[in-house]
Task: structure prediction
Amino acid sequence: MVLVLLGGFVAVSSLVSAPYTELVPGDALPVSSLITVPPGRAHPTHGKVLLTDVGVQSLRYLQYFYVRLFPNRINTVVPTGALTSNLPESEFNAQGTVDMAESQLTAKAVALRQLGYPVPERDVGVTIYVIDPGSPAWRTLQVGDVVTSIDGIPTTNPKALQDAVRSRQPGDTVTIRVGSISQPTPGHDVSVRLGSITVDHKNVAFLGIGDPSSQIAAMGTQPVYDFPFPVSINSDDIGGPSAGLAWTLGILNALGGGQLTGGRIVAATGTIRPDGTVGDVGGVQQKTVAVEEAGASVFLVPVPELATARAMASSGLTVMAVGSLGQALSDLEHLGGKPGDAAKGPPPGPDGHSVPTDWQQSPWS
Result:
């Protein structure tokens, strides 16, 4: 009888999904094969710049019990809801796509500015990152949409969008012009009937993007950059913002002379901001293992992740903390790399240092 019960338990637990996810080492890929620059501007590259990601595995209860009984120092088990902020899977995955698109756009702007090119920036709309479930926006808009106007009123940043909504009455139907990150304009129109929420004891119009009643809704200013020539990036189905630094270094290596790594295999993780600041990321524990397996001898990580990465690294991997692109370039030069044209730095004025309005509030920062 005991064996029958045990067998039934094993059978059921091997089929039923547990509310937990395991983070495991992912891939470490050379960015040179994913970045395309005009042939007349490309340089042969020596060494490699690697991006890295984290593998995500949903667990069944039998797998969950096993990893709890036999834990290891590489993989991490987290509640799935904590990982996804309890969002629907489709919306969580869409966020990853938005993050990647923004990181690529910013990396191109930062890299070209670092090479001395003026890259003007203008704010064109509001990128939707999270939509309040059940709201008017939930029924008509999608994560990754860029709202450029409401009833013809430009919404170039989150405050402009909120002001446009609040100028209407609950129940009003508004026309929203919607584009995408890759092509915010001219876009297309959608009609939305506004809902109602109570703010300071008053009923006000409610859309469902960044409204006070929502604890998870978020949006950010969408910039457009006027690039001097095209640079394209193929993310190879990788999501999230953490490849920003790697993309930037890869573009600089391709356009700046090809000697940036000094012939080494250099891995990098970290978000990139328009001012060249490197932001922290997650999963560095697993990423460190991945880059070592890919043959990296140097791993550049955001400052808060230094201790974690060094604890996982072997003696053959040099882990360095960087807080900015300038620091990363300096560290690579110290290791024997040659920045080439990347030593020029951004031109003076707004075409070299401009940051989109409310960028610090954007979820991908």
